[in-house]
Every structure is written in structure tokens, then in C-alpha cells.
Amino acid sequence: MSAPLVTARDLSVRFEARAGLWGARGVVHAVEAVDLEIQRGETLALVGETGSGKTTLGRALLGLVPLHAGSVRFEGQELARLSQQALRPLRKRMQTIFQDPYASLSPRRTVGQTVGEALAIHGMGTPASRADHVARLLRRVGLSAEMADRLPRELSGGQRQRVGIARALAVEPAFIVADEPVSSLDASIQAQILNLLVDLQGELGLTYLFITHDLNVVEYLADRVAVMYLGRIVELAPVDALFAHPQHPYTEALLRAVPRLGTAGTRTVLAGEPPSALAPPAGCAFSSRCPHATERCHKEVPPSFAAGPGHQVACFLHESSIREPAA
Amino acid sequence: MSEPLLHVSGLVTELRTARGPVRVLDGVELSVAPRQIVGLVGESGCGKSLTALSVLGLLPAGARTIAGEVRFAGQDLLRAGAETLRRLRGARMAMVFQEPMTALDPLFTVGDQVAEVIRAHGGARGSSRALAVEMLRQVGLADPERRAGQYPHQLSGGMRQRVAIAMALCCAPELLIADEFTTALDATVQAQMLELLRSMRAERNLAVLLISHDLAMLSQLADEVAVMYAGRVVERAPTAELFRAPRHPYTAALLACIPSLSPRAAGRRAPLPTLTGSVPAPWAYPTGCRFRDRCPRASSACEVAPVPADAPHMVACHHPLEARLPAPAIGVPA
């Protein structure tokens, strides 16, 4: 196997925050001790509920938030050790597509200005060649070149998301973090955008980190899936293995909770809500809601155990069945 | 089949726009029987929420219902006075929305707010507080005595939605209209809310009109699903049948777009089927069938709006897909 495109080792991100407007100050453990490798050309889906740290992990992998501990390497280079100047060519190789195409496009810039801006910033081409490049990009994402003169408010939600994709592609990235890119779109438009993302990946060899809470999308799109709970990756597996044989009790609960067509409705309802990241429980983060939790789970954080080929699970239930912990 | 609790027919609601009045709802047909959960599904702007607001007589300024009939427990709501409507809302029919903060006042404790609803509908002052705590317990709020003394900002999204449901249900209404009420919640919390609706139906004989864009969610909860497109109900059928054998080309297309249903025979990522174009703006609805510009089966007959026959599986289409016989052993959602 070739070297991974992105490698995170023991990655932690913490923020200072208050619990509510007048609450006590505290430290949010947004991402805790994450080890992750993303291979070239794959789609890794990152799933989890609100506040589980999905978005923060995505931003940390792009070098956009200060790390509390650990490291992120992109094509072998450790981001935190690079100067701003040395980072610049790497930034071109990593781009983001956001959930809300309304919020991520400047209302006063035309589509052409928005897409062309990144080219200008990175000094790509001449002003005249940039206009051509923008027109090609717009056509590539399924928009007409005339759209370059439009303002975001003149576009539909699906068209705006296509503009967001064109902007990300402008600088010819290798790695794209797509943060809930189809969540705010209606079903019929969502399918169009998913098809576009798959086409682009095949054509340009893109690597995706696809952040979503929609398991129907994950099953369709992902090669591998990482499940986050309260800042930690609790399970990591090839997509088929995860859906067929989820190993972590949280993954199992999540798969049962998300309504999916073609499956009978299950009635297993997980009690309670995720605890606050300001006051995570001791031991396993899921222990406060886990039906299988033992005394040990409330005290010790479980390491990752191998549960099958490329399948890791951070749960003591899997310690006895497997001889050695995963590296 | 019992007499419907809510019966909507030929509902036309107009919106005043800069381009003149637009019929955003044009002949909506809908029925909810006692204890029935009916799903109303469709894409943004199809008129789902406006249908609910028309039923409740809570239309925003600029919108008005100009034709049709809305009967609730035999009463004609469109011709009822404001006072009659006000007494019905809350007492016999109630509503919960996507964002529970629209129903909650940030300046009062949640216990006070539930108690106020009880008093407004004739509950005694002395007992209303105890009833409020009991109601919060029934909707599954953990530690209800303590929570009743807290303000909305001290609760999580899931807890707030439980409080909003407690307020909606505290006068034991017969009908709950729930508009995207789990959309903002996490999956495991959404599952809890759906379980709560099931148990409220079982214990309190509650009927629910469940408005959502989430077909998968409706497939597991609703007895019957009505599909809206551009201000009309284009298909309505028992849930298992609608998902197994949709007859309106729009319903079929909507189901085909859902990733998990797409065939994965040739490896993953066979392109998802998509609909051409997008939902037209209300002032650009075509005459006749409003789906015909995007429909693969459209013909010149579609220039005239189809009139659906009143049948258990209703479809408003000149060229519906064939009805398919049921396969043996279909799971029927409860």
C-alpha cells in the first residue's frame, strides 16, 4: 500500500468555553487521541451526532485549528512544523465544501468572482486565462458558463452547492473535506450532487473526508467509515463490514436509530443524550449510555482492538475475543 | 374505517406576492382518522407547512384560504369564528414545530409554561403545577421536578422538544400536527421522539399528522403517507404499499433518489437516478398537472389537471405506474 495522504497521530483539540452564557468556564475536549490514516483516492466517511467533534476533526486535518496534542501529516509533511510560506502550496492541495451554500458564498460577489478568487490568491494563470478556467470549472460542475455573472441569491440551493464545489476544485486539490455537503438539499437535488462528487472523484482522483450524519449517504458513497462519539473515534471499518457487523455498542445503536428505507422499524431506543464535551464521563465516553457497560468501562478508556480486516473498535467487549490490540 | 377526525378537501390557499396572488395550495385533499398517523411528505416549498397552518387557521399575513373545506370532528373550521378556533387549538388539536424555541418563552421556567397552557384551557391554578410536572414525566423528561424549575436555555434540544410536546399534549388533544419536529435532533434522540409518538397514540388515542421531508422516517412510523408536489397531494396510500409500489411518477422518482435504495449490483456508486430540473416557483407552476415539465411519462393529456378518484390508494396522474400485486409477507409499520 502506498503512503497515506493524510495521517493523524494521537490528535487532540481542546477549546476553552463556557457552559451557557453565565456558566462556569471549562475546557471542551473536542477531539481526543485520534489516530487516523486517509488513503489516496478513498472516501472516508466521518459519522456521529451533534457535538461529537466531526467538524473539528475535519478542520484539524486541514491544519485550521491549533492542536492540543499529536500531529497531522499531509503527504508526509507535518503541518504544525511548517511556516506560513511553506504551508501555502499545501493549502492549495486541501479544500473544503461546506453544508450551507447560502452561508459559504459571499452575497455580493458574482459566481465568477467567487470561483476565480482562489486562482488569483494562488497566482494561477493570468486574469484572461482565469476567466476561461472559471468557465471550464462551471461547466464541469454542471452549470452554464453564463452563471459566472450571477449573484448567489439568483441561484437555487443545488446550484449554489455546485458553485461551492467549483470553488473547491479551482486550485486542483488532492484532498477535500466535505462537511455535510448535501444535508440542506432536497432528496432529488441531493442525488444530483452526490453523483457529481462521485464523478469528480473518478475523474480527478480526489480523496474525500465526507462528514455526515446521514447513514443512507454513507452506505452509498463511503469506502471506509469512522464513527465518532464525544471526540473519539469509537469504530473504524470498511463500509460493508460496518453496516453488516457493527461492533461498538454506540455504532449499533446509531444504525438502529437512523430510519432507513427497506428495513423494518426497530424499537431499540438508546436512553439519554450524549453527555457534554465540557464534562465527559471518566473511562469510556459512551459508558453513561451503554447497555453493556461494566465497572471497568466507567474507569478506563478502552484502546482500539482489531475486530476484523481493517476493522477497529474501541470497546472492552472486544478485548477477550481478540488476542492483541491493534497497533 | 372510522369517520375521519380531520378531513381536508379542495383546500385552496392563496399567497399575495409582488407578481399578484398565487395559488400555493391548489385543491389539497387529506384525511386523518382517530389514532391514525398520517405522513405528509414533499420537498421544500411544496406546501406541507402551509397546509398545516391553513388547517389550524394560523396563516401568516398575506396568505388566505379562498376555497375548500376543513372539517375537524365534524366542525367546519374554515367557517368557524376566531374564538371557536382558539378554543380548539391546544384543547383538541395541537402543533409542534421543528425548532422548539419557537414554542417556548426564554423568560419563564418550562414548568410554568406547561402549567400556563393547562390553566388557559380551564385547569385549576392549584393543581396545574403538579399536572405540568406529571406531563413532563409522561413525555420522558428525566428528573421532571428539577427540570420544571429550569429555563429553556438550560435544556438540550431534545429536552426542549419534549417540553414542547408536553405543552402540546397537556390538554389531551385528539390530533397532533408535527411539522419536521425531529429534523433538528440527533438520530438517537429522534428515535426517542418517534417512540414517544407511538406510545402517545397507544395510551392517549392520539392521531398525528406528521409533516416531514424524510421518507425513511415516515416509512417506519406512518400508517398512511400523502405525497405533495407544488401545492397538491399527488399520491396517498397505506405506507407499505406506497413504498413497495408507488404509482405517481413523482413519488417513484423521489424514492429512487434515496441512496440506500439504489441498486449496488455493479459495485458501489452506480449513479443515482435523478429528476431533471427543479421544483418550479409557485408563480411558474405549469397549467394542468404541475409535474408534467419534469415527468418522463407526460403527454398532451397532462395539460389538464388529473382528477384523482377517491380510493385507498389515491393517485393524481393521467399515466400512473402500474399497480403491483403485494409480495407475500410485507412488514407493516405499526
Furnish the topology, listing elements before pairings.
The complex is a heterodimer of chains A (327) and B (334).
Chain A: E1 6-18, E2 25-38, E3 43-47, H1 54-61, E4 69-74, E5 77-78, H2 84-92, E6 94-97, H3 111-121, H4 127-140, H5 157-169, E7 175-179, H6 187-204, E8 207-211, H7 215-221, E9 224-229, E10 232-238, H8 239-244, H9 249-257, E11 305-308, E12 311-313
Chain B: E1 6-17, E2 20-32, E3 37-41, H1 48-56, E4 63-72, E5 75-76, H2 82-91, E6 93-96, H3 110-120, H4 125-138, H5 144-148, H6 157-169, E7 175-179, H7 187-204, E8 207-212, H8 215-221, E9 224-229, E10 232-238, H9 239-244, H10 249-256, E11 314-315
Parallel strand pairs in B: 3-8, 3-9, 6-7, 7-8
Antiparallel strand pairs in B: 1-2, 1-4, 4-5, 9-10, 10-11
Helix pairs in contact in B: 3-4, 3-6, 4-6
Word description of this protein:
The complex is a heterodimer of chains A (327) and B (334). Chain A is an alpha/beta fold and 327 residues long. Chain A has a single domain (6-93, 173-321), classed as P-loop containing nucleotide triphosphate hydrolases (Rossmann fold, 3-Layer(aba) Sandwich), CATH 3.40.50.300. Chain A has nine helices and twelve strands. An eight-stranded mixed β-sheet of chain A has the order 6-7-8-3-9-10-12-11, sandwiched between helices. A four-stranded antiparallel β-sheet of chain A has the order 2-1-4-5. The longest helix of chain A has 18 residues, at 187-204. Chain A is globular, with a radius of gyration of 21 Å. Chain A starts with 5 loop residues before the first strand and ends in a 14-residue tail after the last strand. Chain B is of the alpha/beta class. The longest helix of chain B has 18 residues, at 187-204. Mean pLDDT of chain B is 88; it is low at 329-334. At the A-B interface, α6, α7 and α9 of A face α6, α7, α8 and α10 of B.
